Amino acid sequence: MKRCAQLILGVAISLAPASSYAISVPLPTNEATLNINFTLQPQFLVNQAGTPDGQDPSYDLFIRRVRFAINGTVGKNFNYYFQVDDPNLGKFGNFTGRVLVQDAWFGWAPTGNEGGTVVNIEAGLLYLPISRHVLTSITNFITADLQGDAIRIPNNPFPSFRDIGVHARGWALDKRIGFRGGVYEGFTPFDQAAGTCQTGGAGCITPRRKPAVGGFVNLDLIGSEEGQWLYGDYKWGTSPVLSVSGAVNYQSQAVKDAFGNNADHKLFAAGIYLDLPMTEEAEFVLDSTLYVNRNGTGSPNTGTGFAASAGYRYGFIAPYVGYDYFQSSGCDASNLTAGNLAICNASIHTADSRNLKAGLNFFINKNLNHVNVEFGINHGLSIYGPSAITPATAGYTPASLDPATPGGPRRAFTNSLANPNFKSLVVMWTAYL
């Protein structure tokens, strides 16, 4: 990791551009608007023990996100948004992924798009209402990227937590309450084996094809942060904001428990957010969310997660720290047979996480243009470190996660806390044009 420190300054300078711009396209009518947005996030990533033999750091330079979006309004009652993305382009030398539709929705606001109380009925490819943190713009996190290690949606098929659905979104009480919630397609795997979902068939996920439902509410106790499609952490203002939020997501028989039985997917979230300006040049920001994940008895993804981050901006620089935690639930010996108890005990705690990150955010043009330098210590399941390097993405599993005695057999791949912790370094430039 010593070599990494010598590369930080050069990589940050080479990635950072001079300025950012927003583009508004003039139309031959005053009844509609059209905006064009472009987001680019080149990233330099170092993972300790990330090479195939697990002996050396792996070095990757890739594009974390490259997004092109158009959005606007039609009259005073309609709005739209369309965005395409090519996530992780070139990561681990993998260029197989190509552009996908990230967002696509159209909305109708019966009483208008502006005001202290607004209700939008939106349909299309929408954000799932998981938590305020998930509903935060990728250009305005406290940390370099989304803190998703505490959220557990097994076999997650949703592109960046989006799903096809219809929901109501808006705000009320003079922008003191924000809300969104509705009905979504949910997890309905299209590639199950023929006959699996016939009457009496075993192993079928969502056999009744019941949709997912979800809802989110954000209450502003001090100030207001409502009125936009997504939230942001750094406000660059002079008025404090304090909000609390809650969310519920549910789908019937959408997952399997440790014994192969269908189980309901349930996800509960409770969060608190604080932006406390000290002066016009300084602000303290806190974002914290508790997640309760329920994915069936004995599932390593049934348990409690916690994600928190705090940053202090002074002028153009903001040091920050973040922590991600997940602990699976234990097995209830009183309700399980001896055989099922053994299966349960072998399954739980294999995907727990304890991940610490600390970094500096260098603002060039506020959140429209900034560079993150982030150091992480990753233990268990993590989006960084060797556990993020898999045959599906990189073509190999680092031996550091699959130790063996010399000449002996290798263990099965695992992300459990039984493995040592591993360090990572992220240098990422975010530009929103």
Major β-sheet profile: 16 strands, antiparallel, barrel
Mean pLDDT, rounded to whole units? 88
Order of helices and strands: HEEEEEEEEEEEEEEHEEE
Described by the principal axes of the CA atoms, the overall outline is globular
CATH A-level architecture: Beta Barrel
Radius of gyration: 23 Å
Q: How big a fraction of the residues is strand?
A: over 45%
| Number of structural domains | 1
Share of helix, binned: under 10%
Describe this structure in words.
The longest helix is centred in the N-terminal third of the chain and has 14 residues, at 2-15. The protein has a single domain (2-188, 205-404, 413-432), classed as Porin (Beta Barrel). 6% of the residues lie in helices and 45% in strands. The chain is globular and about 70 Å long. The protein has helices spanning 2-15, 338-347; strands spanning 23-25, 34-47, 58-74, 78-85, 100-108, 118-127, 162-172, 177-184, 212-222, 241-256, 262-279, 282-294, 303-314, 317-328, 353-363, 369-380, 422-432. 37% of the residues are buried. Strands 2-3-4-5-6-7-8-9-10-11-12-13-14-15-16-17 form a 16-stranded antiparallel barrel. Strand 13 and strand 14 form a beta hairpin. It is mainly beta and 433 residues long.
In short:
With 433 residues, the protein is mainly beta. 6% of the residues lie in helices and 45% in strands.
Using brief descriptors, characterize the structure shown.
16-stranded antiparallel β-barrel; 433 residues; Porin; 2 helices; mainly beta; 6% helix
